[in-house]
Write a structure and sequence with these properties.
118 residues, alpha+beta, Nucleotidyltransferase, domain 5, 4-stranded mixed sheet, 4 helices
Length: 118
């Protein structure tokens, strides 16, 4: 049976998470996309710590407004800056079961342009 869109996303996410884990040397950049907002976290899975986080709910991004893709790009730039400030240059990208397209791709490309290696 085909399954609902939500179920397919959940399956895709679980399949990705089996392969993608963050270490101390190369943490995981996890992306969660809702209908209104996008969230990004840099996570060390071995120690179960969030090292850096950014989202469209933050005041600086919310004030700038713009389209959802533009806001996602701002989140990508911000998470890259915060990661680089903590000495994190390389991450493993976890798209959270979503397709690498639109807002997810905009966040990843902005993080790359800001100096983060995905």
């Amino acid at each position: 049976m085909k399954g609902s869109r939500k179920e397919l996303t959940r399956r895709r996410h679980m399949r990705i998470r089996r392969r993608v884990t963050g270490t101390t040397e190369r943490p995981r950049l996890a992306v969660f996309r809702s209908n209104q907002n996008i969230y990004a976290q840099v996570i060390d899975d071995t120690q179960h710590h969030t090292l850096a986080a950014a989202s469209t709910l933050e005041a600086g991004i919310r004030e700038q407004g713009g389209s959802t893709q533009a806001a996602s790009a701002l989140v990508g730039k911000l998470i890259a800056e915060r990661s680089l400030d903590k000495g994190i240059k390389q991450v493993v990208f976890d798209r959270g079961g979503k397709l690498y397209h639109g807002r997810v791709a905009a966040l990843a490309e902005a993080a790359r342009e800001a100096g983060l290696s995905l």
